[in-house]
From TrEMBL:
Keywords: Membrane, Transmembrane, Transmembrane helix. The keyword Signal does not apply. The chain crosses the membrane at residues 12-30, 109-130, 137-155, 161-181, 188-220, 240-261, 295-315, 327-347, 353-370, 382-398, 410-430, 442-460. InterPro entries: Uncharacterised_YfhO. This is Bacterial membrane protein yfho. The keyword Membrane applies.
C-alpha cells in the first residue's frame, strides 16, 4: 500500500477497501437507526420522487416500447415537458439508469445504493487525475480518501445527491486538459466535456469556467510566461475538442437549455446588488475551513491536513505549481459577490462551485504525504506556525459565543492537525537520527492515514448525528418514503371515480403538496422543480397569486381563488377536514375518508371550466393590465386575454362590459400602539405580535362577496439586530378575518435562488357569507422595522348567479375530446362564429395544432396557455407534442459523433505535427 508507484489497479483495490471501512464507520449509523438519505425537504419533494417517477417512465417504455417514451406528462404540475422538467435532476445522470437493474419494489434501496456508488466513483476519478498528474501512490491513495469524504460530499449525500456528479467530472476534465497540454490524445477531454454537458447544464457552465482556469494556470506552470506564443495551438485544440463534446451532448443539452430559458426563474439584479458579502461570510471562510458548516453554499469542511498544506502553497510553489495557482484564483473569487454571481451563471452569488477546491487541497495533501519523510526543519516550522494560527479560530469562536455558540467540533480538527504535525516531526527526528527504517516508515504511514480517516469520520458524524448538528433529524426513516407519498391525501384521491378530464387541487394550507401528483398519477396543479414553465409563471404573476414562488408558480391552491381554480379545470379539491373552511366558493364537500381527526375531504365544483372551449370575447394585454388583480381574475370569466399583434382579432368581440369588483372604504388603526404604529403610508413595527385593524366603513359591502386585501408598493427597512453583521430583510405578512388566516413570506435577499421582491401582496380572504357582525380584518407584519406602503385596498367581488351562467356557456362550447394522451389530444367542436379554442395547456412551442387537417399556429391566451384560432362551423382539431429542439439536438449529437470519428481518424494522427515545437 505504501510503495511509491503510479496509481494503478492495485491502488484502486486498496482504495476500495478503505472506502468500505469509511462507509461503514460513517453510514453504519444510518443502518443502525434505520434512517434514509432522503431529506424531508428537497429529497422528499424532488430528488427521490423524480428518480422514482423517471424510472417508472422507463419501465413503462421498456414494457411497451411501441407506445413510445412520454415527452409530456400531465401529472407534472399543470402538465410539463419531461426533459425540461427532469433534465436538471436525473435524465443525464448515468447512475440513475442503473436503478433499472433493481426490481420496482426496491427503488428506495436503489436510490441509496446509487448514492454510495457515486461517492465511490468520486475517489476513482481522483485516482485517475493523480495518475495523469504523476502524483504517485501512496499519496494518491491518501488524497483519494480526503477527496471522497470531504464535507461537500458528506453534505450532498443527504441534501442534493446529483451535486456529487461535478466531484466526479471535474478531475476528469482536468485530466483531459492535462493530456492536451502534454501533447497527448484529446479523447479523454472530449468525453469528459460530453459527460459534463449531458449530465447537468447548470454545473456544466461552472465546470467550463473552472477547467479553463485550470488550463491557463497549468499551461504557464508547464511552459512558463516566455513561451506564451505557444498557447495558440493549445487553445485551438482545446476549443475544438470542447465543441465536439458539447455537440455530442446536444440531444439532451439543447432541449434542457431551451427549457431553462423558457422557465420561471428570474435573473434578478447582478450579484443581488451586493458589493461585498456580509461580515459573517468572511468570518466563515476561516471558521468553516475544517468543520461541517457552510454559508451561502461556500462548502469547506476539509481534512485537518489543510492546515499543514497551507504554508506549503508558498514554500513549494514550484512543486505545487498549478495547485497553488488554482487555489489563489479561487481565493480571489471567494472574496466578492460579483465573482460568485458570474460563477453562478450571473444569478445570485452562491458559491456552489466550491466543489472544485477539494480537488487541489487533496492533491496538495497527497504530495505532502509522499514527501512525509523528506521534510526540512524550516518546512516543519512553517507548518507548526500554521497550526498555531488555526488554533486561534476556536478561541475566537469561544470569545464570540453570543454570536456563534461554541461546539467541541471546532477544536477537534485543530487537534487532529497537531497530531499529524507531531507525527511528521517524529518522522523528521527519526530520519535525522538514522532510525527511520522500513518498519518505522510503515508505522508512521499507517498512523497518518488512520488520523486522516478518523478526522473525516469525526467531521461526518458531527454533521449527521444527534450529538453534533443532528442532520439525521431532517431525514426520513428508511422504508417510509413510498408510504408517505401514498398517504399524501390519506387515500382520498381514490374516492374520486370520475373518468373525465379534470385537475385535482388543494387549499392554501396544503403547501406541503408539491410533486406528489406525479406518483399518484393524477392531474393536479402544483409542481416544485428547478425548471418550471415560465408561461405559467406569467399567468400567476398577472393575477398576483400570493402563493407564487420562482420554482413554484402555482402552489397552495392558487390562494383558494375561485375563478382561477375553475379556469385551470380544477373540479375536485383534496384537503384535510380541518382546512375545509378555506375551500373556494362553489366547492362543496362530497366525500371524506373518515370521521376521526386528520381525515381528508373531497370537495367538488360544478363550475370547473372545460379543458378546451371556444371563446370569442377578448381583451388585449394592454387593456387587461389596466385592471387590478381581482378585476383581472373576474374578467377571465367573461373572455380571454390575447396579444393582438400575435393573432387576427378582427372577427372576435372586444370586451366592453363592467366588472362588479368594489373598492371598499375602511379605516386603519393599530390595535396596540406600543407594538405597531401607523402614520400615513408608514407602518412602524416594534413587536411583530402587534396587529393593525382594517375596519370597513360599511361592513354590508363584504356580505356575500369574495373579500381581498391588497398591499401595494411595499418596501421594508428592518430594524438592525446587531452593530455588525447581516440583518435580514425578510418578513411575513398575515391577514386574518374570523377564523381564517392567510400568510405571505417575503424571503431574505441572501436566499438568492428563491429571492424576489414582493412589491405587492394580495390576500384572498374568501366569502364572508351574509353576516356583517364578525371581527374586522387584521394585518400583522412579523419583523421589526419600518414598512412603506403606497396603498392598501379592500376589494369585494359579489357572488351572484351571473357567474354560473357564464360558466355554463363555456361548458356548452366545450370541445368534444375523443383522444387524450400525454402527447396527443384530438376532438371536434362546432361554433357559430370565429373564435379561439381556449385550453389550460401550459404554453410551449412544442404543441402543434391541426384544424381540419391543416396546420395552424397556436397563440398564447391568458398569458400562459395554448389557444388555437378557429373558423366558424365544425372543426376537427388535433394537438400533438414534441419536445422543442429535440430533433435539432439529435442532429447536433450526430454531428458531434462524426467529428469525434474525424478527430480519431485524422486529427489525432497528426497531433504531433500540428502542435508547436
Amino acid at each position: 500500500m505504501f510503495e511509491e508507484n503510479n496509481a494503478s489497479k492495485k491502488t484502486a483495490v486498496y482504495y476500495t477497501g478503505l472506502f468500505l471501512v469509511m462507509t461503514a464507520l460513517i453510514y453504519g449509523y444510518f443502518m443502525k437507526e434505520q434512517k434514509s438519505f432522503i431529506w424531508e425537504g428537497d429529497g422528499f419533494s424532488q430528488h427521490y420522487l423524480v428518480f422514482k417517477d423517471y424510472l417508472s417512465m422507463w419501465r413503462g417504455f421498456l414494457s411497451h416500447p411501441t407506445e413510445g417514451f412520454p415527452f409530456w406528462d400531465w401529472h407534472i404540475g399543470l402538465g410539463a415537458d419531461v426533459i425540461a422538467s427532469y433534465g436538471y435532476y436525473v435524465i443525464g445522470d448515468p447512475f440513475v439508469y442503473l436503478g433499472l437493474l433493481f426490481p420496482e419494489g426496491m427503488t428506495e434501496l436503489a436510490y441509496h445504493v446509487l448514492i454510495l456508488v457515486r461517492v465511490y466513483v468520486v475517489g476513482l476519478a481522483f485516482l485517475a487525475f493523480c495518475r495523469q498528474m504523476k502524483i504517485k501512490t501512496p499519496g494518491a491513495l491518501f488524497g483519494s480518501i480526503l477527496y471522497t469524504f470531504t464535507f461537500y460530499v458528506v453534505l450532498n449525500v443527504v441534501r442534493h445527491p446529483f451535486f456529487l456528479l461535478p466531484m466526479i467530472i471535474f478531475p476528469l476534465l482536468c485530466l483531459g486538459m492535462e493530456r492536451i497540454l502534454q501533447g497527448e490524445s484529446n479523447i479523454a477531454f472530449i468525453l469528459a466535456v460530453f459527460f459534463s454537458a449531458f449530465s447537468n447544464f447548470y454545473f456544466f457552465y461552472m465546470l467550463t469556467v473552472l477547467v479553463f482556469i485550470f488550463a491557463i494556470t497549468r499551461y504557464f506552470n508547464l511552459y512558463g510566461i516566455k513561451e506564451w506564443s505557444r498557447i495558440v495551438g493549445y487553445v485551438w485544440r482545446a476549443l475544438y475538442s470542447y465543441l465536439i463534446g458539447v455537440l455530442m451532448a446536444g440531444i439532451l443539452l439543447a432541449p434542457v437549455v431551451w427549457g431553462f430559458l423558457q422557465s420561471s426563474r428570474q435573473p434578478g439584479e447582478f450579484a443581488a446588488g451586493l458589493s461585498f458579502y456580509p461580515i459573517e461570510y468572511y468570518f466563515g471562510l476561516f471558521k468553516n475551513l475544517l468543520i461541517t458548516e457552510r454559508f451561502l453554499w461556500t462548502v469547506f469542511g476539509f481534512s485537518a491536513c489543510t492546515v499543514l498544506v497551507a504554508p506549503l502553497l508558498f514554500l513549494w510553489r514550484k512543486k505545487f505549481g498549478h495547485i497553488t495557482a488554482n487555489l489563489a484564483v479561487y481565493a480571489v473569487i471567494l472574496l466578492l459577490p460579483a465573482f460568485g454571481s458570474i460563477m453562478n451563471g450571473f444569478s445570485g452569488p452562491y458559491n456552489r462551485w466550491t466543489f472544485a477546491i477539494p480537488l487541489f487541497i487533496s492533491a496538495g495533501s497527497a504530495i505532502l504525504f509522499n514527501e512525509r519523510f523528506n521534510l526540512t526543519r524550516s518546512e516543519l516550522r512553517a507548518m507548526g506556525l500554521s497550526a498555531v494560527a488555526f488554533s486561534s479560530v476556536p478561541l475566537m469562536i469561544a470569545d464570540a459565543g453570543d454570536v456563534t455558540p461554541f461546539r467541541l467540533a471546532y477544536p477537534i480538527p485543530v487537534a487532529f492537525a497537531w497530531l499529524v504535525w507531531a507525527l511528521l516531526v517524529w518522522a523528521y527526528w527519526l530520519n535525522q537520527s538514522g532510525r527511520l527504517n522500513s518498519n518505522a516508515k510503515t508505522t508512521l504511514s499507517v498512523a497518518l492515514l488512520i488520523l486522516a480517516m478518523a478526522n473525516l469520520v469525526f467531521n461526518a458524524r458531527d454533521f449527521y448525528q444527534p450529538n453534533g448538528q443532528n442532520e439525521v433529524a431532517a431525514l426520513l426513516d428508511y422504508g417510509t418514503v413510498d408510504e408517505t407519498y401514498n398517504e399524501t391525501f390519506g387515500g382520498a384521491e381514490q374516492l374520486i371515480k370520475d373518468p373525465g378530464i379534470y385537475r385535482i387541487g388543494v387549499t392554501s394550507k396544503d403547501t406541503d403538496v408539491k410533486n406528489q401528483m406525479a406518483l399518484l398519477n393524477r392531474m393536479g396543479m402544483n409542481s416544485y422543480l428547478s425548471v418550471t414553465n415560465g408561461a405559467v409563471a406569467d399567468f400567476a404573476k398577472q393575477l398576483e397569486n400570493n402563493q407564487f414562488q420562482l420554482i413554484q408558480p402555482v402552489r397552495g391552491g392558487f390562494d383558494d381563488r375561485r375563478i382561477a381554480n375553475n379556469l385551470l379545470g380544477v373540479k375536485y379539491i383534496l384537503t384535510e377536514a380541518g382546512h375545509a373552511k378555506y375551500l373556494p366558493a362553489g366547492y362543496e364537500v362530497v366525500q371524506r375518508t373518515g370521521e376521526e381527526k386528520g381525515a381528508f375531504v373531497v370537495a367538488q365544483s360544478e363550475q370547473a371550466y372545460p379543458f378546451a372551449y371556444a371563446e370569442s370575447v377578448y381583451l388585449s394585454t394592454e387593456e387587461f393590465e389596466k385592471y387590478n388583480p381581482v378585476e383581472k381574475e373576474a374578467f377571465l370569466s367573461y373572455g380571454i386575454v390575447l396579444e393582438p399583434s400575435e393573432t387576427d382579432t378582427a372577427a372576435l368581440t372586444p370586451f366592453a362590459g363592467e366588472l362588479a369588483v368594489k373598492s371598499v372604504a375602511f379605516s386603519l388603526a393599530s390595535s396596540d400602539p406600543e407594538k405597531v404604529q401607523v402614520s400615513g403610508g408608514t407602518i412602524t413595527v416594534k413587536d411583530g405580535e402587534g396587529t393593525i385593524e382594517l375596519r370597513p366603513n360599511d361592513p354590508q359591502e363584504l356580505a356575500n362577496a369574495e373579500v381581498y386585501v391588497h398591499l401595494k408598493g411595499l418596501h421594508f427597512d428592518p430594524k438592525h439586530q446587531a452593530e455588525y453583521g447581516w440583518t435580514s430583510i425578510g418578513y411575513g405578512a398575515r391577514v386574518s378575518i374570523d377564523d381564517r388566516t392567510k400568510a405571505v413570506e417575503q424571503g431574505d435577499l441572501l436566499s438568492f435562488s428563491s429571492y424576489f421582491h414582493r412589491e405587492d401582496m394580495l390576500f384572498n380572504m374568501e366569502s364572508k357569507g351574509d353576516t356583517t357582525d364578525s371581527a374586522p380584518l387584521s394585518l400583522q407584519l412579523n419583523a421589526a422595522g419600518t414598512y412603506k406602503v403606497d396603498d392598501i385596498k379592500i376589494y369585494a367581488y359579489p357572488l351572484d348567479g351571473q357567474y354560473a351562467a357564464r360558466v355554463s356557456e363555456k361548458q356548452a362550447n366545450a370541445m368534444a375530446i375523443e383522444t387524450f394522451t400525454d402527447e396527443k389530444i384530438s376532438g371536434t367542436i362546432t361554433q357559430a362564429k370565429p373564435s379561439v379554442l381556449t385550453t389550460s395547456i401550459p404554453y410551449t412551442s412544442g404543441w402543434k395544432a391541426q384544424v381540419n387537417g391543416k396546420e395552424v399556429g397556436t397563440v398564447k391566451v391568458n398569458y400562459g396557455f395554448i389557444g388555437i384560432p378557429l373558423p366558424a362551423g365544425e372543426s376537427e382539431i388535433t394537438l400533438t407534442y414534441q419536445t422543442p429542439l429535440l430533433r435539432t439536438g439529435g442532429i447536433l449529437s450526430i454531428s458531434g459523433v462524426l467529428l469525434l470519428f474525424c478527430n480519431q481518424r485524422f486529427w489525432n494522427k497528426k497531433r504531433q505535427a500540428s502542435l508547436p515545437q
